[in-house]
Amino acid sequence: MIAFTDIVGMDLAKQALMLLAVDPELCGVVIPSAVGSGKSTLARAFAGILPESTPFVELPLNVTEDRLIGGVDLEATLTAGVRVVQHGVLTKAHEGVLYVDSLSLLDSSAVSHIMDAMSRGEVLVEREGLSEVHPAKFMLLGTYDPTDGEVRMGLLDRIGMIVPFTAQNDFRARKKIVDTVLGKRDSEDTADELKMLGGLIQAAREQLPHVSITKEQMQALVQTALSLGVEGNRADIFCIRAALASAALAQRSDVEEEDMKLAIKLVLIPRATRMPEREAEADEMPPQEEPPPDEEPEAEDENSQADTPDAEAEEEQKETPDMIEELMMDAIEMELPDNILNISLASKKKAKSGSRGEALNNRRGRFVRAQPGEMRSGKVALIPTLISAAPWQESRRQESLRKGIKKRNALIISKDDVKIKRFRDKSGTLFIFMVDASGSMALNRMRQAKGAVASLLQNAYVHRDQVALISFRGKQAQVLLPPSQSVDRAKRELDVLPTGGGTPLASALYLGWETAKQARTKGVSQIMFVLITDGRGNIGLQAAFDPNAEKAPKEQLEQEIEALSRSIQADGVAAIVIDTQMNYLSRGEAPKLAQNLGGRYFYLPNAKADQIVDAALSF
């Protein structure tokens, strides 16, 4: 395993982890980065610089609720004949680190339990007749790929630092990474470096209570948070703590400007929702009229309005020194993304929670009932299982005695007694956009579709929705955006939108149907097609597989489209057709397509993105 000191680059992430090691009250670090960037390696190496005996627990994505928060150990309980309680993963991470790789893919129920534990510092276990409180105060370390989706805002709000990670594209740095991984490292040197780093962190922990920060510096950090539109008060506190930890790490007793800049980069900038505005320059201000030389300015009374509370607050805000603005802009200019509105946190505006549907399954969601089943097929419903077994205990003990098996206090449970929990899981919708990229209106249609996709993705995390985009032009349809919840991925995939050529509508329907089938194998039950087209197809399905195929006659094309549409309808896929053709050019193809799909028809020749979204959500 690669040691913390051997990892090349990722300096800002390293600084964040060292600050967390100095002050656990920062609660955690999140590192979003692309696949293969080394974020997971760095996270696991973090355990090597922590004080000895500090727990470092890795949380698997498929963790069950009983393993996460604890509960009754069924096997031990049945063996011993008395209730045996087992502690969950959150409790095992007490006074240590809980590490979650692919944090954005963690089940929403597990995220809720983690959020509750971080707020309380303990876990409340209320299940299967058990009511206990277990300590669970830990630092959360999370890594994830932004293209896999975003992390819940409520969880990020409880974590102190979010590293604005950038890819390592420098040739020398990448070469050094390869040499480090493949080359031979001196284990003694590595051990010495880790020992020195551990000593530095321990010294910083001892120095931390003696570090001071001035009132003006705290005011500067709070004002920076306001200027960046950072929501909530936790960020202000985390920012001050990060500045204190940075000073302690440098063995200083006072916070300096470089400590404040680092705190702004790690705490405030990833939470920004707007660009800060520079104060107007003095030479741009309109000149003020000077009083006539023969008139003396009126003397201010001691009880003038300047002394009122409101005026004092206003004056305090005006007294923000120039250093604050310079500090804020220096920290921001190199780190703030080009489009501030697309930052992961900034896009998470207030929205109604919930989902558009529910599906039954045996693994997660809201417990609705117990049903017969095998232990390996789901979660055991303990109380119903024991109730089912209770009436037969006496007869089973006598049967055991006849067979020479002595079981006095232990419960005897057969396979027929086992009851499995049945859950109702909230599931989102997969919106598959199929956009006609042929003809003169293609560019306009693609622009509309891109806006609608971005709009749906803004709140996809709330409803667990996914969006896919299929473009059809030329000989066949093409998936431009596979099912995704990521705004960043959609922007990257949809930057170049090819247009022009024929209209392979049948190919689009077939490809959309295949995409829907694949999604269903992954547990997506609600799927909707959103077709932005005039409904005229002039390229047959055979041309998608054989470029040399002859052009099919019009009647055959119509039969293909009708057969595919009716099959899609029979498969339970919802659909809407948005007609973009001008009324005087329309021949009724789009309404007929909507009818064959069993969907709804919208005539929107000049549709805007929000109109398309409203149509999709109104179904």
Notes on the structure:
- By secondary structure, this protein is α/β, with parallel strands linked by helices.
- It folds into four domains: 4-205, Rossmann fold (3-Layer(aba) Sandwich), CATH 3.40.50.300; 211-278 and 317-348, Helicase, Ruva Protein, domain 3 (Orthogonal Bundle), CATH 1.10.8; 358-425, no CATH class; 427-617, von Willebrand factor, type A domain (Rossmann fold), CATH 3.40.50.410.
- It is built from 24 helices and 18 strands.
- A six-stranded mixed sheet has the order 15-14-13-16-17-18, sandwiched between helices. Strands 2-5-8-1-9 form a five-stranded parallel sheet. The protein has a three-stranded antiparallel sheet with strand order 10-12-11.
- It is globular, with a radius of gyration of 31 Å.
- Mean pLDDT is 75; it is low at 278-322 and 332-358.
Question: What are the defining features of this structure?
Answer:
single chain, 619 residues, Rossmann fold, Helicase, Ruva Protein, domain 3, six-stranded mixed beta sheet, five-stranded parallel beta sheet, 24 helices, 18 strands
CATH superfamily of the largest domain: P-loop containing nucleotide triphosphate hydrolases
Residue fraction in strands: 15-25%
Q: Sketch the major β-sheet.
A: 6 strands, mixed
Shape-level CATH architecture of the largest domain: 3-Layer(aba) Sandwich
Shape: globular
The figure for the number of domains is 4
> Uncertain runs with pLDDT below 50, 5 residues or more?
278-322, 332-358
Distance between the termini: 53 Å
Overall average residue pLDDT: 75
Helix content: 40-55%
| Cα gyration radius (Å) | 31 Å
Strand order of the largest sheet: 15-14-13-16-17-18
Number of helices: 24
Structural class: alpha/beta
Number of E strands? 18
User: Which CATH class of the largest domain applies here?
Assistant: Alpha Beta
